[in-house]
Design goal:
The protein has three helices and two strands. With 92 residues, the chain is mainly alpha-helical. Helix 1 links the parallel strand 1 and strand 2.
Length: 92
């Protein structure tokens, strides 16, 4: 595979996870952490939403975004924490 980009996508405040600080602060931390990074960039699509979004909707957004940006069908892969994986079996 040719890896073209990495996207850090902080979740919305609507996620309401215990101890989750405001998205504006999380986005600033990510921005600072990636300041000198050449291939991982932050996108605030998800963080800017007032409500939680299902992971599949977020992935579809990024898939379309990358397809348009690169002018071809891209393969998108998700890297996430175990806490997110555990939620995949929870209805709704």
């Amino acid at each position: 595979y040719e890896i073209l980009a990495g996207i850090a996508s902080p979740v919305s405040d609507g996620y309401k996870k215990k101890d989750l600080i405001e998205s504006k602060h999380r986005c600033e931390m990510v921005r600072l952490a990636l300041k000198n990074n050449n291939w991982v960039k932050m996108n605030t699509f998800e963080a800017d939403k007032p409500n939680w979004m299902p992971t599949l909707e977020v992935l579809n957004y990024y898939k379309n975004y990358l397809d348009q940006l690169h002018g071809r069908d891209m393969r998108l892969m998700l890297l996430c924490g175990g806490d997110l994986v555990e939620t995949f079996n929870i209805p709704g």
